[in-house]
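To illustrate this point, what follows is a protein record of this kind.

___
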Amino acid sequence: MAALPRFISVTEAARRLGLPAKDLYRMVDAGKIKAAEINGETVVSEESLPFRKEDLPEYKKYAHLKGVGIWVSEAARKYKIPHGNLSRWAKAGVISVLGKDGNKTLIDEADVGYCSEIHKKRSGSGKWLFNPDGTPYQPKIM
């Protein structure tokens, strides 16, 4: 038997996402979040809530490194990720850029660690790894 959808209050959803409730109502109106009304209260489908990469277990392993800078070339060696991948992910915003010094780019080590976890789990030539918000890309099943 399929699991029934779970609904939570807009207040709880807003707290989890760190957003004002009015933003969630806008997402409901735009059809980005599924909602229902129960006993006069608007509730949202937990499965339809957007989540952040920071909420994922792969990211939490490296959360203690948030804001710690590492040069792209050093990160490539330390995490065994091609330099080009790190540069592309930084350019796309998946990895935060903390600064630049000439041609050198200082990036957030927590983001690098997270990306290395996803890369190792799902790597393969030509595979799309990340959505624009940095969460792992899930191919659509036809």
In short: The helical segments are 10-17, 21-29, 57-60, 72-79, 83-92, 109-122.
